[in-house]
Amino acid sequence: MTKKKQTKFEDKIIEERYKKRFSSAKIGKACYKRGDAAGMVGYYNGYLKAIGDFHSVDPMKLKPSVFEGNSAVSERILVSQIYYELARVYDMKSEDTYVKRTQQCLDQFAIFTVNQPYQNINSEMLRVHLKTTNFRNKEMFRETLKKIYSKSSTCFIATYCYSSSSPVTQEFRQFRNSTMNKPWGFALYRYYYAHSPYIVNFLENYPRLGNILKYSFIKPILYALHLLLRLIPYEYYR
Length: 238
Fold this sequence. Notes:
The chain has eleven helices and no strands. The protein has helices spanning 3-19, 21-33, 37-55, 72-90, 96-111, 119-132, 138-151, 156-161, 167-179, 183-205, 207-231.
């Protein structure tokens, strides 16, 4: 077989594996549910490899931008969940290799979560698991949640009242990023991101009530807090 024919043959195999990638993901999920960790790792990594080979990217360096079209969001959330479930399985092992893989998968989980439409679903899932699961490398999972919060461009309530580019929203975003590493800051934003999307969703579903609360109560308070933050020297809350 000539080199040119071999390349075409390999490309065809890669394309066929890519077309059938969801079968690997489905079997991997079934293995995960029945506690077959080895099977889950094998099929999940096969799914990620099929995507990586098709796009000529390391499976541990995939980006949300490789997924386009109508099914992009649904596959992005699938990929994020696969990275997270792999991280949970790798976390059960104490060897350095598995600790490194846990971190790699958590990094990818964060990349596929930040500023995505399903960000709140993933961050809330992780927040609950931090309370209920005895992770071997718990600090890794905690830092991943902090990373999701700090890199998110979303300030739900401020954006609802103003806009994502408003000076008021920017001020709150800067304050969040400056205080995220403080214990009280992390606790505050964990609570905020757990509840604020539902508050905004409620206000949007009832626009008359939402506008009354927005203009008579929420917006004036946010603006007053925004002015207060501008008066407080940065070093006081850094």
